[in-house]
Design a protein that fits this description.
about 425 residues; mainly alpha; 17 helices; 6 strands; about 5% strand
Amino acid sequence: MADETEQQLREKIASQMASIANLAPLRSIVDETGLSSPETKAWAQLIKELSDNEEQLELLLESKRVAAVVRLQDELRPPLDSEDCPICLETIKHVNATKIRRFYCCGGFTCKQCCDEHEAKYSAEGFDEMYRGKCPLCRAKIPREGDSKEIGTKLLKHANKGRAWAQMKLGSWYSTGTNGFALDRQKGLQLLEQAADQRYPDALFMMALAYSGEILERDESKYMYYLKEAADLGQQGAQKELATAYNRQNNEEEKTIHYATLAASQNMSAACGMLGHLFMRAECGLTESLILAKHYSEKYFEDAVEGDPCTPVSAFNLSLALFHLSFKRYEGILEIPGHSPIPKSLFWARRALEGDLPVETNDSVIKFISMVENEAKSHCTNCRKEAGCSSFKRCVRCLGAWYCGKECQVQHWKAGHKLDCIKRK
């Protein structure tokens, strides 16, 4: 099916390119009729349709690459911890804290989707009072969030029975002195080691972090050992951390891409951001791709957990990808209403400045914003009137378009700016 779709896209792209090749250049149409004319908009729409198909094709090819990486990993290290969700019966390929919701009462679990549905029913009016606040598996009362005493008591019972997930959870709490447990790193590490000895992925990852210097003195060999074990068992945090570790080493480009791809295939935001960066700069043997840089940078923000700090590099990569894709597609004409990348590109560049960037990168972001703004505000975005000594007012919603007056702003909004505009935070 994928091969058939690929062939259809290639044929469609070839046909569209042939049609566009017979038309007058976009620049000449804009010069003759203006940016907002029906002729310019019709030309721009053809380019957009072609670009959409090119993007679909590249994403399809990337999905094949990702599938091949996942398939290779499964052949090298077949999943050992796959289990079915007891409610929906869907197979959870790698059982770890990011894929399931564990219930401290019985020690059972459900997939995250079933848990979310259960909590939605809990919140909904008319939920059967008989089951409100109860475990969907054993029907026992679920300990209240924040009730560290009751949760701790139940965890201790499970840990004493040798259950790795409970040992890992208690070990992390003792190691950090949280959730009502006094700081006891020795006891915490002992529990983590017990869970790691049972090949529990989350515990293996935590042992790696302990030997990274967070808790214990850094031990590179133990750090890499535990990290690789956790990564090969499907722990996406470990996969991303391992990709980063390999990226710091020489001649490990293939392993860097392999583990970053595995983590990204599980929708880990940081891994998506990493792949976006590598595609943007054609690093680790990857071919430069603005489409994939944009795709993975967008996925970073889609998959990021609410409350997590923004990675400014991903924001800047997205800004650059949006800008340069449009520059290339529209022959350097960036202000066609409804097709302008300027508002969104500036939005993400400004977002990048909110984070902690290296000095050199921070300077690059400032220069990029200044370059785009200076060019855009030198004339009215709608009628092209030169600013001269007077300063124009700009769109207060996106801060990415400048106007000589209210009339031009209204005209430009109706002409297509409403599609380009993005509300700043």
